[in-house]
Design a protein that fits this description.
Shape: globular
Largest sheet: none
Structural class: mainly alpha
Strand content: under 5%
Number of helices: 3
Number of domains: 1
Number of strands: 0
């Protein structure tokens, strides 16, 4: 896994982290996301269903996973 090359502000990382926590841990249905029985979601589906103002990308999600101090998120080995 690599970090993004663009500059991502700490404020943006926190905003995305809070959004991901809300959606993935508490209310995936708010964006029409369905988790599998083990609690996984496809990154592509998460990006597609997220509000445009979140501006989610695969690299941004990876950056949040890498930098989250509470280690709340995991990417599968295939990063899907």
């Amino acid at each position: 896994m690599r970090a993004t090359t663009g500059k991502i502000s700490q404020k943006q990382l926190v905003k995305v982290s809070k959004f991901l926590s809300f959606v993935l841990r508490h209310k995936p249905h708010t964006i029409g996301l369905t988790l599998d029985v083990q609690g996984w979601a496809l990154v592509s589906e998460l990006i597609e269903r997220s509000p445009s103002e979140m501006s989610l990308t695969t690299d941004l999600i990876k950056q949040v996973v890498i930098t989250n101090d509470k280690q709340r998120f995991l990417l599968s080995e295939d990063e899907q």
